[in-house]
Specification:
By secondary structure, the protein is α/β, with parallel strands linked by helices. About 30% of the residues lie in helices and about 15% in strands. It contains 5 helices and 6 strands, in the order ββββααβααβα. InterPro entries: MethylDNA_cys_MeTrfase_AS, MethylDNA_cys_MeTrfase_DNA-bd, MethylDNA_cys_MeTrfase_DNAb, MethylG_MeTrfase_N, MGMT, MGMT_N_sf, WH-like_DNA-bd_sf.
């Protein structure tokens, strides 16, 4: 069974979802792919796992780095799971490029190259945003690209983490990337 809880964050309402194993989803209301893995039958009820995720978010949105991770149970292919595992290794307040993740994936798979576009697809379909920090992934040229919650939120999350953004290309509203 999937349980849900609505969390009020400084960047908008967040829907959390969990099963008996761990967090299965974390979405900003209205974001791209909002709740797309959420089954029709779910129970709006706080559970121990959802309470732990709330505590994590409280610490995170206070501007501190959480020193724990709630249990996670993302659903995805082996490839996506491997990409998400790399995302979990990105230090708080730091960024990594899609190309760097592609190189790490190539090493893991013992192949000469891995497609940065394939990595981008896996990053973009991360259903547990913020906790699995896809907002820390940037374009090779330092551009803030591809965040399902919106570029403004991605920028706000990086600012909250005091990430060095001096080298980032932040598009103006209405500018295509």
């Amino acid at each position: 069974m999937i349980y849900t809880y609505k969390y009020k964050s400084p960047l908008g309402r967040i829907l959390l979802a969990a099963d008996e194993v761990g967090i299965t989803g974390l979405w900003f209301e209205g974001q791209k792919y909002f709740g797309n893995t959420l089954p029709d039958k779910h129970i709006p009820q706080e559970t121990e796992i959802l309470t732990e995720a709330k505590k994590w978010l409280d610490v995170y949105f206070s501007g501190e780095e959480p020193k724990f991770t709630p249990p996670l149970h993302p659903d995805g292919s082996t490839f996506r799971q491997a990409v998400w595992k790399i995302l979990l290794q990105i230090p708080y307040g730091q960024t990594i490029t899609y190309g760097e993740i592609a190189r790490k994936m190539a090493e893991l798979k013992n192949v000469s190259r891995m497609s940065a576009q394939a990595v981008g697809g896996a990053v973009g379909h991360n259903e547990i945003s913020i906790i699995i920090p896809c907002h820390r992934v940037i374009g090779t040229n330092g551009s803030l690209t591809g965040y399902a919650g919106g570029i403004d939120r991605k920028l706000s999350l990086l600012e909250l983490e005091h990430a060095d953004m001096s080298y980032l290309f932040v598009p103006k509203k209405g500018t295509a990337l």
